[in-house]
Amino acid sequence: MTTATQPSVSFPPQALLIDGEWRAASTGAVYSVYAPATGDLLAELPLGTPDDVDAAVAAARFQFETGEWSRLSGAERGKILWRLADLIESDLEGLARLEALDVGRPFGEAFFGEIPLAAETFRHFAGWADKVTGSTYSLPPFGGDRLSYTIRQPLGVVGAILPWNAPTMIASWKIAPALAAGNTLVIKPAAEASLTTLRLAELALEAGLPAGVLNVVTGSGAVVGDAMVGHPDIAKITFTGSTAVGKRIAAQAGPALKKVTLELGGKSPQIVWPDADLDSVVPTAAFSVFANQGQTCASGSRIYVHRSILDEFLSRLKTHAESIVVGDPLGDGTQMGSLISQKQLDSVLGYIATAREEGATLLTGGSRIGDTGYFVQPTVFVGTNDLTIAREEIFGPVGTVVPFDDDDEALLLANGSDFGLTAVLWTNDSARINRFTRELQVGVVWVNAWGPPHPALPWLGVKASGVGEELGLEGLLANTRVKTVNVISA
Ligand code: NAD
């Protein structure tokens, strides 16, 4: 076992961040983090405890109630967020290498996508920080001259619980709007991939964020996450992760009347009509399935193709999938890296075996690559909507193609899912686009493209894909509460 020491990787302190100090866990316990692609030891991180959560929440609460953050003007808060965006950009390569090592995703995806988007998110919400406003109302007198208005206020301490698949970007989705609105934060990154969140916190201190405004507690979901959800001084939990854990959090937060935003799993449809230009459809449709090794909530892993173009589409998709370069996440030209863990590998290979047992036709892929790391071939099956692989989120590089004959059938198939995160329409027919964008049961629709969320646009899922919005004005307001004021002058 070796410790990775590449000089261009920006390793953060291997510690909890509580009240501006880098600390060990209260018990001193640590856990080991390995690079999924190689098995190299990357870090020994503190195994946080409920006592650590208490300390982090106390620091965040003190900062919120008495500290300089809650008294700072929106413009001053915005300057710090903007500075953080600059620091992320100046450390772009180091952060992207760290993300590639820790998550196993290709360096290029982090360098050109995830890390710049995190910077853009901080910059976007920096612009909102001095624009958190209420409304005024013209109402009849009420025993005297009346002025009624609302003010928007921060919630207090926000608890953020992160997944491992795109930790830098998703950390920015939670930190930037919460801080812009004037809240303080306790963050729990996923145990599998905490390093870039710690690095972001380090950069936030460098940007001038006062101690205690942003606290990070690493460790397990069952201990640290659970303690956060149950903590009486956390006003809101913003969670991104699996639907199963999201339901647990909702059940725990409900009786405490705690606000939640839950961004959960997906099983997103792509619908391809004969008028679409397959030269541009196939590479992007495939990227939607295989980006980040398929470990993307918005992965368009159910592909509905009009029967008249099925053979042509399958032939092109097979050729494209077989051209994808799978290998070292830091290697030149790598397009797909390693799954995150042995557990994820076993789960993905289990779904592939189930697809075979259920009679799906394998178009390409279907196997693990090598025996070091957790590499899986880009895999495509052809089948029907009732296959397990067409119903459940796999979170791996596996797509299912299902043919359809007319629009009514395509809509039924696309909506025939427990999930409702995103959908992609591949057509130029405006009547069809209007009908499907209205009738699809999803939070986000792409037409003739697929990509990551932009911080200016609300991001949300419906059905089993989530509760509440993140990003955009809606995501900012989700970090505030409204207060109604009536001023009566006699
Ligand atoms: P996960 O639910 O296993 O874990 C997410 C986080 O929850 C981790 O930090 C984990 O430690 C914590 N956790 C686990 N048990 C907990 C508990 N009992 N109480 C509190 N916290 C607990 O998810 P994952 O495997 O890290 O991420 C993959 C999932 O995330 C996929 O389903 C994917 O679709 C989803 N996801 C959704 C979005 C979105 O925007 N909708 C984005 C990215 C990922």
UniProtKB/TrEMBL annotation:
SUPFAM superfamilies: ALDH-like. The lineage of its organism: Bacteria, Bacillati, Actinomycetota, Actinomycetes, Micrococcales. PANTHER family: ALDEHYDE DEHYDROGENASE-RELATED (PTHR11699). Residues 22-485 form the Aldehyde dehydrogenase domain. It holds the Pfam family Aldedh. InterPro entries: Ald_DH/histidinol_DH, Ald_DH_C, Ald_DH_CS_GLU, Ald_DH_N, Aldehyde_DH_dom. Belongs to the aldehyde dehydrogenase family. It comes from Leifsonia kafniensis. Keywords: Oxidoreductase. The active site is at E263. This is Aldehyde dehydrogenase family protein. It comes from the Bacteria.
